[in-house]
Amino acid sequence: MKLSLSHLLLFIFLAAGTTSAQWVQTEGPEGGAIAALFQDGPNLYASTLGNAGVFKSTDGALTWDQKIDGMGYQSVEVIDRCGSYLLASGTDGLYRSTDDGDSWTTTTGLPSGYGVRTLMVDGANVFAATSGEGVYLSTDSGATWSAVNTGLPNSSGYTYASGIAKAGTGILASVTDLGTYGIYRTTDLGTSWAKVDIGLPAYTQLNALLMDGSTIYGTGPTVYKSTDDGVNWSEAGTGIPAYSGVDEIVVTGSTLFAAAFNAVFRSTDAGSTWTTLGGGLPLMSMVSLETAGSTVYAGTIASGVYASTDNGDTWAQRVSGLLARDMTNFFIAGPTLYGNGNGIFSTTNGGDIWATVRGDLKDSSAQPTLVYVDGATMFCRDYPATGIERSTDGGATWSEIYSGLPPFGTVSSMVSAGGALFTVNEKVYGSTDNGDTWARVDTALGVFVYMTNITKIGGSLFAYGQGIARSTDNGATWALADTGIPAFFGVTSVTVVGSTLFAGGGFPVKNYKSTDNGDTWTAIATLPSSSSASQLLGFGNDLFACGENNGIFISTNLGTSWTNISTGLPSPNFRYSLAIHNGMMYAGTSGNSVWKRPLSQVTAIEPVDSRVPAGYALRANYPNPFNPSTEIRFEVAGTEQVTLEVYDLLGRLVSVLVDGRLSPGTYSVSWNATGVPAGAYYLRMSAGAFSATGKMLFIK
Predict the structure, then answer these.
(1) Is the pTM value of this prediction over 0.70?
(2) CA distance 129 to 54
(3) Rounded average pLDDT over 280-287
(4) CA-based nearest residue to 475, from 424, 436, 420, 435
(5) Residue 260 Cα to chain centre, angstroms
(6) What order of strands is seen across the sheet that includes strand 329-333?
(7) What is the residue-wise DSSP string for 137-179?
(8) Could you give the angle at the alpha carbon of 562 between the alpha carbons of 561 and 564, nearest 5°?
(9) Tens of pLDDT along 351-362?
(10) Are 205 and 199 contacting, i.e. CB atoms less than 8 angstroms apart?
């Protein structure tokens, strides 16, 4: 068969669009939760808590590269070296590397399911403190392991070990079984242990131990120290606020640094007094520290690594290439895609560059941070949990504005309707002065209602959490709209496909649909492996879902069945959020930042020709009449927000086939009319100032 030039160009275009039919990671946002830092010669290693494994830097944390070959995606608690082996303890076990982390092999003997909290290397011997089964010892540089728990508490059936360190001729370990707490010492490589913790407060478990000369330091509610191999202890935390939760302690020269709940502290007098360090550090949990010569590194719970070259007086963030953030949700405003991950980030070029709109938020929880944006006006939540902050200059400056909201709630979303703003903080609140003051508007729902999110669909507002409430008069009145959904069902997401509403939740694991605007709901198929849906997203004829722990899915039949479309994504991983923008689908992950793939790979919207057409156009559908499917082609002359909608003869919206920003080109989309009555329907296309209408006939 002879191909014309136009056919050949079309074939090349379609072939090029299918060569990368999987998810790829975008260039940010950078940062993440850093469990441990380890300096090893010229290399600095960072282990992550969010399933991103290990990162390595060879230039003092200026740039980072992920190193998970042989390890895969998992959380890693601790890194150390024993002889020629680099050791890393992850969710799935302990790994060794002989090539500075470029590749890893697994070891044997450590209990599965119990994370190693600390490693302590003494020659070829390595001790591992586990979270549940006590202390393990390896005498062959970490290749094999055996338990050494004689004398350690175990009345509950579990032994939790945290800090472990060399102390004179012995080894000290901080251990509890949730009944007995204390410091235990062994002088025979763990064959037997004896309790030695005189002076420590009752019920104190130390998170980390550090031997500096003849002094042992321990961290917990504050800092403690011992000068007699751990037998007697005294408090050494003057200057550290009570209950700061000190996680880590390191020493360089005569200076000690301690990482705590929301600060790094420094002592120059052997722990007698401490000062709080700032100078660029974010106000969030500091979970790890390391020193390298005159440089001090701090790992945070959400914003990656910070470095100080002046003894901790000033700090600078160093996260280039460190793609390990939790990304909890997205927000779309015109050409801008915003992402939330303990900060607010934005991109206008498909994730190649992410700008920081608001960084280092104090609240490190998994709640969304950006909850509303309208041009230059933005709202975000910040610490304390009740805090709403507003910016009217595109994020340059922020001010608190939550008058009228109750304390200790969680503001996670906001919508605009009827000239007012509405948000949820367990209940539904409204503001008619752009957020200056708030008042509850859902008193008709009663006191036993707990709402976590709010969204606008068509002419209705839906608040959901413990059930679903609906307002059809721009938030003036509210009523429950969850008949068919069990009591106390936790609704996590509400979306729409055409005229069908969908609701997903976590416990019990179910998904529901409604064909009467929420009056009644019926159960639909759960996601594979009975995974709960952290988000449902409707687009055109398709319903998408991101599962808590097993992938991203699409349903083309209104939730009757699901297909996994997760190829290329880190696995296992939690998928928090989805967005569709400019012809791309984006996935926000737990600990692996943002990933994307072309929407055309997974939906009915197909690019037909990438050449820029002469203008915008809506072509006649084919076939017409049809039963039950028809194809519609349309042309887009510039990058524009495009909608393609189906209406019945009474002007009621039946289905949304396209709703997103598309690049110039010719596209094709199909409409399957199964489930709607036979008859005539209008097809309406809008793209900027362009609009066009066509007529279709569905016969049975």
Answers:
(1) yes
(2) 20
(3) 82
(4) 420
(5) 22
(6) 329-333, 336-340, 344-347, 355-358
(7) EESSTTSB-EE--TTS--TTS-EEEEEEEEETTEEEEEEE-SS
(8) 160
(9) 999 999 988 676
(10) no
